[in-house]
Each structure stands twice: as C-alpha cells, then as structure tokens.
Amino acid sequence: MASTAELWPELDQIPKAPPTPAPPSGEDAAGYGPPAPLQGFMQLARELGPIFQFEAPGFQMVIASGADLVAELVDESRFAKHVGFGMAAYREVTADGLFTAFNEEPNWQLAHDILAPAFTLEAMRSYHAAMTATVRELIAAWNKRAGEPLNVVGDMTNLALESIGRAGFGYTFDSFQRSEPHPFIASMIATLQHSTKMPDEQAAEREQHENNVRFMHELVDDVVRRRQDSGDTGTSDLLGVMLNTAQPGTGNKLDLTNIRNQITTFLVAGFGTSAGLMSFALYYLTKHPDVLAKAREEVDRVLGGDLDADPTYEQTAKLRYVRKVLDEALRLWPPAAVFMREAREDTVLGGRYPMKKGAWALVLTPVLHRDQAIWGEDAERFDPERFGPDAVRSRPAHAYKPFGTGPRACIGRQFAQHEATLALGMLLQRFDLEADPGYELTVGEPGFFMPAGFTLTARPRTSTAEGAAPAAEAAAAQCPYHALQTT
C-alpha cells in the first residue's frame, strides 16, 4: 500500500501538526493517547487552517475542514468514500455491511438497492408505532425517577437501541426493565473503543475483543434464526425486507452472513447517531430557556395536552422548530464527526495540492460546520434559526454534512431524525427539564461524540402532568415487545 507521502506528491505544501511521540511499551502503554483525539484535531484545525497533515506512530493522514475544499471532496465524479483509519478496524464486527464495505465489494450495492426503499421518509410510517411505544417506556421510567438526576446519554442509548431493535428486527433489549445495560451494549461500546486504540493496547485486549465480537454476532444470528423459524415471509420491518426481498433487475438476495453484518451495522451506527443527537439537543435546550420555551409552545400547539393520545406520523412531521433544534445540535456536535474521501483518479485539490489516485483525506465535520465563511462570525453559537427554510436555501449543500455524503451517506438518517423528533416532542409535552447549573459541556468520544457526564432532572409538567405517569406506565405494560424472549 502506498504511503501518504507517495499519494500526495507535494505533501510539504500542507501545514504539518507537531509530531506525536511514540507510544510507551509494557505497563506504561495502558491508557496512552489523548482521551479526545477528534477534538484534538479540531484544535489543530483552528491553529493550522482548513487543511493540515497529521502523523503518529504507524500512520499519517491529511485532514480537511474548510468548506471550499470539502466542496471538491464531496464531488462524486472526482472522489469516493474511503474505508480506512478506525473504520477499517471495525470491519471485524460489521465486515461488508453498508458502513464499512469497501467500494469494490458487491454486497454494498446489493444491500443498498434492497434496503433503500425501507429508509425513505414515507417508510417511517411503518416504524412510527414501534418508536412511539419505546418512547412511552422512557417516559414511564422518567416518571418513576421524577426529580432525580437522569443519565441522559445512558437513557438515550437505551431509547435508540430499543427503537432500532423493535422497529427494525422485532427484537427488544428490554432496556428499561434492566438495572444494568444489556450485554450487547457493553460489547458494542468496547469494540468501538478497541478500534480507536493503539496497536499495543489492541494486542493486550485481543482475547476480550474477540469474545465481544463473537457475542454480538451470536445474538444477531439468533434473532435472524428465530425469524426464519417463524415462517414469516413479510417485509414489514428491515429484517423482513432483507430476508424476503430481491434486488431489482437481478433477483439476487442477501446471504445470512451479510444480513448479520447489516443488522450489526444498523445497531452500532444507529445507536451512536440517535443517542448523540438527542443527548446534545437536550443539553442545548436546557441551556437556552428561550429556545426551550419556543419548542414547547410548538409541541403544545401541535400535539395538544392529551397524554393518552400518541402523536401521529403527521403531527410529528409538523414539529418543525423541534427539528431545527435537532439540526442545530447536529451542526455543532455531529455524533459521527468525520468521513473520509479518496481520489478516483489523479487530481489537484484546491488548485494547489496534487493527489494521486487512491490518495485520501479525512473531513472533519464539526470544523466544516463552524466555517465562518459559511456560518458567520457567530458560528460557535447555538441558534436553531440557522435552519429556517430561507437560510437553508441560501447555504451551499456541502456546508452541512452530519450524515456523510453521496450515495454512501448514512442510509438511516431519516430513521434517526424521525425518531429524535418524535422522542423530543413527547418528552417536552410531558416534562419540565432542568440541567445541573454547574455542568460545563464535556464532549466524550466513545466511538461517537456524546455529552459526557450530562444529567438532567425531569418533573411532570404541572399544567399537563395529571394522569401522565399512569398513562405512560399502562402503555409500557401493554407493549407487545415485552412478550419477546430476550438474551
């Protein structure tokens, strides 16, 4: 494989970050490395500009974040998705799933053609009821803990995984009935963290890592096997689509190994995107009372005060200001903070940086989303009005890429956005939210950006809370997913 220097012939033109020292060996290697490497890259981008090179023991890369350069990198005629760096390391878990498949692997196109119709905006109607039932369980859990500090990231992770499992595969992790996270969650987070560690650390924990991967695969294989044994030939959820739908034009279907890879991909990518998105949105709402008041006014107007009535699909679509809040949270802290692009042929980036075919660059999305040439001098400020219709139309599309770009952008973005809008609307309808006034935002990087240590208290709203807890608890008790056997 060619080195970065060989693929970027005039690499010395690109500003270089200060050298990173070699990792220590032996016992001193434990915990080596910055706890927040992507935020370290963000700081380097502020210091070195819209493009720079970074070198650490064992690898070297070019990092771009300026909007003008990204406008070229997202041009599908010149650049394609690059699977490398931490993403390639995660292939042990998801192999040729949609997110980690190499461009030349045939299963990517096969799976994309089969699954794309199941992820359209209109397809969200079929998942809406399962999503709503899951939010009801979260509401019941918050009512039981009214006034207590709530672990926001933990609860949003449970909500995200339950929504994907139930709506996508007819499976429940039973998250809101457990005192500890489901073992799948622990294994998933451990494998994500493993993929970002230095080689010495990876070697030291190899056996545990393999056990985690094996556990995840066995659980997913069991879910698929149960569906097959049931004789269900329907396509009402993602698993049904994958088992029973053929690729248009060829008649080809996904094999069982690739179906496992896709399910694991959806669980991993979906948990990170949705949980991070909702957690940051709740953080910003509690820190901006004016925004919270405006969002609540919309929720009360659109959803009303009947807490026994679930929001409809159409009502959820009308929560436009709530959606702006979510879009702005995604701008400042996109949970998936990078995507990578490689040159299809020899080219020149920005008119001055020659790249040979196969040369790649990492796009640092949170810095792109703060480019003052696009977003203004107040780009660091949280302001949902940036996503009003006129503002969106006046802004170039390449300036906002929280879900990646091109045909290989996150296929589940409609799922994550609908789920988050529904959940945030139902929570605002029922609770007064208050964050710890002493909390300062600390962004963790457990594979995705998350507001680390963020807690809030939720109290049933005095104006609409009467009957809220019994209604939510009754809905949770009647949830059909409780009848499913869990692992």
From TrEMBL:
It comes from the Bacteria. The chain crosses the membrane at residues 266-286. Heme binds at C410. Its cofactor is heme; FMN; FAD. Residues 1-33 are annotated as: Disordered. GO terms for molecular function: heme binding; iron ion binding; monooxygenase activity; oxidoreductase activity, acting on paired donors, with incorporation or reduction of molecular oxygen. Gene3D superfamilies: Cytochrome P450. Keywords: FAD, Flavoprotein, FMN, Heme, Iron, Membrane, Metal-binding, Monooxygenase, NADP, Oxidoreductase, Transmembrane, Transmembrane helix, Transport. PROSITE patterns: CYTOCHROME_P450. It holds the Pfam family p450. In the N-terminal section; belongs to the cytochrome P450 family. Belongs to the cytochrome P450 family. This is Cytochrome P450.
